[in-house]
Amino acid sequence: SQFTLDVTLDLLENIISKQNGKLFTILATLEPAVIKNHERILMQAICEKGNVDCLTSLVQITKRVPHKLDGNAWSPLMYAALNGNTAVARQLVETHGADVDWKDGDGDSALGLAMGAKHLD
Q1: Cα–Cα 20 to 30 A to 10, which of 27, 46, 71, 96?
Q2: Which pLDDT band holds residue 82 (cuts at 50, 70, 90)?
Q3: Is 33 exposed, middle or buried (0-12, 13-18, 19+ CB in 10 A)?
C-alpha cells in the first residue's frame, strides 16, 4: 500500500543510504507526487547504487531523466560511472540518450570520472 510522506531531502538521503538493498521496495511505497518532488535525489541514489529496476521505475513515474542533478552540473551518468555501475550507465546511454560528452563545472566527463575511480569497464 502507498503512504504519504512529508519527505525532506535529508530524510530521503537517510532512507536510501541505510536501505541500499531495499531501494526498490522503498520506491514502490512512495506516492508518485513524492517521487516527482524528489526525483533528483532519487535518481542520484539509484545511479550511485546501480539499481536498473529502480531506474526503470523512476523513469516510468516521472516520464523523464533529468540531465543535471546538482549544482556541480553532474548528470545521472556521472554518478553511475563514478560508482562503476555499468548496467545503469548503459541504460542511461542506450535507452535514455544520456550525453556521454557532458562535462561538469570542473570539466570532468562521465568517462573521466570512471577512469579516475578505476572503473575501466
Answers
A1: 96
A2: very high
A3: exposed
Task: State the chain's mean pLDDT as an integer.
Answer: 77
- Nearest of 99, 119, 101, 97 to residue 48 by alpha carbon: 119
Q: For residues 97 and 72, what is the distance between their CA atoms, to the nearest angstrom?
A: 21
Instruction: Return the sign of the alpha-carbon dihedral for residues 24, 81, 90, 32.
Output: positive
Report the distance separating Cα 14 and Cα 22, nearest Å: 13
Neighbours of 111 (CB within 10 A): 15
Which of 28-37, 84-93, 104-113 has the lowest average pLDDT?
28-37
| Amino acid letter, 65 | V
CA–CA gap between residue 100 and residue 32 (Å, rounded): 29
Look up residue 71 and give its amino acid: G
Query: Which pTM was predicted?
Result: 0.75
Query: And the C-alpha cell for 39?
Result: 526525483
Residue entry with cell 538493498: 21
